[in-house]
Design brief:
mainly alpha, two-stranded antiparallel ribbon
């Protein structure tokens, strides 16, 4: 409906309608016996022309105004839809970045947990050798070994999921890398009430590297520094 209203030539329709109204008014005057004279000369044709031209001009510009308002309303609707799509895309990108950051954090935690698990399993296996198979302590040690093996398998799956892909080397602005990493760490920094200020980022050069891996490195350094501040 909006498209049809925009395509219609409302200015021309207003022109025709205005001319018709002007002619109707003059005809109405004549029907009631109104005399249109000036200095004894009949000026009915002149009055008719003035009325028709005036009303036609008014109708033309009213039609143009209606077309402009219709076009503006359609443009406003288009802009509103584009803004909604942009907001959805921004939310999706933010969620994607959050999930990526969580994956990197989970991989770091997995690395930290895996080594102690190996120590626990080796210790339980060593202690197990001091007991007979029917002993409760032997079964307890076996339970520890089984559970650490299960946890190690879960960690291996997590690491395989979070393993980085082949680096994509291209021109990277270090200022953008820094801003991206700080944006990913912003929630954690806010939770810890830590304020980070960046200075002279505009002077940072453009280098060749993988933007994602560089952002991950800066993110890891930032989070490690935040944790160190609380120790």
């Amino acid at each position: 409906m909006m498209l049809k209203a925009m395509n219609a030539r409302w200015d021309l329709m207003g022109l025709v309608a205005g001319a018709g109204v002007g002619g109707f008014d003059v005809g109405l005057f004549a029907a009631f016996g109104a005399r249109m004279e000036m200095g004894g000369t009949d000026v009915a044709a002149l009055v008719l022309a003035i009325f028709v031209i005036s009303y036609a001009t008014l109708g033309f510009f009213c039609g143009r105004l209606f077309m402009a308002r219709t076009r503006a309303r359609a443009n406003a609707d288009t802009i509103a839809r584009q803004l909604q799509d942009l907001e959805k895309a921004q939310r999706a990108l933010f969620e994607h970045e959050k999930l990526a950051a969580i994956g990197r954090l989970a991989a770091g935690i997995a690395h930290e947990v895996r080594n102690p698990l190996g120590v626990i399993r080796a210790s339980a296996s060593l202690i197990q050798e001091d007991f007979a198979a029917a002993d409760d302590s032997y079964r307890a040690c076996q339970f520890i070994c089984d559970e650490t093996d299960r946890l190690d398998g879960l960690i291996a799956s997590l690491l395989a999921f979070a393993r980085p892909t082949t680096p994509e080397v291209r021109a990277v602005a270090l200022a953008d890398v820094l801003a991206h990493a700080l944006r990913l760490a912003s929630e954690e920094l806010d939770r810890r009430e830590i304020l980070v200020e960046c200075e002279a980022t505009a002077a940072l050069p453009v280098i060749q590297g993988d933007a994602n891996l560089l952002s991950q490195a800066v993110l890891d350094l930032t989070l490690n520094a935040a944790q160190a501040l609380e120790r």
